[in-house]
Amino acid sequence: MPYFDAASAAPLHPVARQALMASLDEGWADPGRLYREGRRARLLLDAAREAAAEVVGCRADELVFTGSGTGAVHSGIAGALAGRRRTGPHLIVSAVEHSSVLHAAEVHRDGGGSVTEVAVERTGAVRPSGYAEALRPDTALACLQSANHEVGTVQPVAEVAEVCRAAGVPLLVDAAQSLGWGPVEGGWSLLAASAHKWGGPSGVGLLVVRKGVRFAPQGPRDERESGRAAGFENLPAIVAAAASLRAVRAEAAEQAVRLRELTERIRARVPGLVPDVEVVGDPERRLPGIVTFSCLYVDGETVLHELDRAGFSVSSGSSCTSSTLTPSHVLRAMGVLSEGNVRVSLPSDTREEDVERFLTVLPEVVAGVREKLGAPASPPPAPAEDRTETLVIDAVGRRCPIPVIELAKAIGTVPVGATIRVLADDEAARLDIPAWCEMRNQEYSGEEPAPQGTAYLIRRTH
Amino acid sequence: MPYFDAASAAPLHPVARQALMASLDEGWADPGRLYREGRRARLLLDAAREAAAEVVGCRADELVFTGSGTGAVHSGIAGALAGRRRTGPHLIVSAVEHSSVLHAAEVHRDGGGSVTEVAVERTGAVRPSGYAEALRPDTALACLQSANHEVGTVQPVAEVAEVCRAAGVPLLVDAAQSLGWGPVEGGWSLLAASAHKWGGPSGVGLLVVRKGVRFAPQGPRDERESGRAAGFENLPAIVAAAASLRAVRAEAAEQAVRLRELTERIRARVPGLVPDVEVVGDPERRLPGIVTFSCLYVDGETVLHELDRAGFSVSSGSSCTSSTLTPSHVLRAMGVLSEGNVRVSLPSDTREEDVERFLTVLPEVVAGVREKLGAPASPPPAPAEDRTETLVIDAVGRRCPIPVIELAKAIGTVPVGATIRVLADDEAARLDIPAWCEMRNQEYSGEEPAPQGTAYLIRRTH
């Protein structure tokens, strides 16, 4: 039963399990105590910190362990903003950051701070010039992920760090997706990461604050973790996290080649196997294990469900999945199709035959969903004559992908030059109708408010 | 090698270990995902929540898991204060709360809130009337531990909850020390606890917020744990925590009898075995496994060190231990001797013969330390004649227990009625000199500022 959602959480690495077992016996006591059980725990904690720091490429006294990657991001952002309160209340983030970063930005905004979101290209990458333009005299902190969690695009961290450095602004890097693959290059100031992304246990994050970076931890503090992460250390899990980080790094070069070959296979073959698919994310500058694509005329939740039934666990940035009714902010910021979105993220033990089987199953699954939804099976018929008229499709109250399916069905029924006005109130339509036009080479003429929801205007061009 | 510091951290309960092992395989995935690994994780999480809620005596949807007991206390206090912001900014805590509560109170005070610390009796217990007097129209929240972590005294939670209920003020109970022993009685509103105190793994706390209690979580939030604890759930550890809570509860009645007998033995025999000892904490209303006593004329750190060499791991609220130079705030609030303080907290597998060996070793250890420090070995000689004069002892710059040792040596050299003026700048003297007077039936006449430090005045009465 192949699990293809390693970007959410990876199963425990064998080395992590072994380290966890060993330290349950040796590392349960309070490392702050002076008796032998405490000293033994302290030794384990110190060794884990040294090991993690070496892999990150920082000093051991710059690194603290937190209760989660999210906790590391929240504490890092709050502490860095407070440390530079005198400079000003301005925070810069990219539009495709992990929700933990965006939630922290929201809290900062609610507290009276200002936030600039740097836009991304269609590949999902920021441009360093986007950060340069966003920087202001009152900028306290900038944040950028090392690589995107939904589409795998690697960000130009070193270049952005240089831009920030020149302006005297610290850069916090959310390295959750990439730390297992390699160190974060460039002159960053703070770094956050999460152990369960690299095969470590859950319950452990890490926060690095470079010496010289102004940092004022927020909230109640205690004497643990240099006053930067309160509460009893999650020691056996910390030991396991450090051990597995070292282990996955040792295997990283070899694994990267192997996984990149497998994801490249998916990238290359899905568009031929499944009609009307958009593969998203940067084709070159990307993480080895992640590939993301969107399929027209299907909804993400049903595809996920059918793939699950066929034995494949993947995730989706489509609306209608889990509890959310809007497409992922990442796909939205990229301006790509969100309909039928599928993220495949391969764990390191993925077998070639499972990827092949996935490539066999996927077209059947998508075809099945499309059939059930009554999606247009073939391209629209040849145009009649070139006339100007308007057809209205009322898709108010209908969820994605129905508005796009109705549009695709109708386009062949109007003459070239005619306009179709799609009325819809599903947020996904705002993303998916223009994306459909781009994929189909039809003209998207914009949107306007309608009595209910929004009217999207499409002109048939061929 | 007997470990007698269970109140700091307990070794993993066998049931916890078993549950942890099993859920490492079953519960590593994201419980928010819809595929089978996610659903399996969700089932484990739901079952753990149900189990923990049943043991606590609350509804499952009132309980969330946090990254530590400290995290639960911090989030609970911040959320409850914010939820009742309109009522006012007043917070009530007891003077003997765990540092996590006091740190949260400090942050509240720094942010413009007001805090009342309710005093305790010499036993360490608060009086419900103390809370009644502290309540104000602008009181947003009151906090009380279920039992004290340093001396084991059980607090009158049900009575205090009633006082608070009558005033319409929610009571947050820090149940870290007692939850393994039994449910917290009474109409409390919020409850926090920590798994590694009951033999669960570290990295898990729990926060209960009763339905109807106004609560506004602070800081960045996500969709996990009802928006009350952000970050990926530490699932295997949560499963283990719930399993061990249920297991220790099932054994609690039997264990309580056994441990109470062993701590009673220490309480009863230490004063006979070691001269000049004060056993502290309530003799009746106390946790089964904790006994605390203070020994005149020794310093806590050396006693801990010597006991560790003899194979016993205990802790101390004396100054000069670990990084602190002041006696524990608990002993200070109780007004008891802090010198040579020793807390013995027995884990459930403590053997009778280890307690007996402790009772053999302790007198030797204390005698050895006293000899090295030149402590007075016998009571002071008979008085000469009744005269009024003053002897000055300059102990400025000398750390505890030297000021008390010098006082004890000098008392026999002055006539009855004479005054000794001890000059000292060690904070512990403020606690230990009056405590010594009480133990020795000498008159403590108070303190006054001195050019360096403080002058403590003692009148010889017999």
UniProtKB/TrEMBL annotation, chains A, B:
Pfam families: Aminotran_5, TusA. It comes from the Bacteria. The keyword Transport does not apply. It catalyses: (sulfur carrier)-H + L-cysteine = (sulfur carrier)-SH + L-alanine. SUPFAM superfamilies: PLP-dependent transferases, SirA-like. Belongs to the class-V pyridoxal-phosphate-dependent aminotransferase family. NifS/IscS subfamily. This is Aminotransferase class V-fold PLP-dependent enzyme.
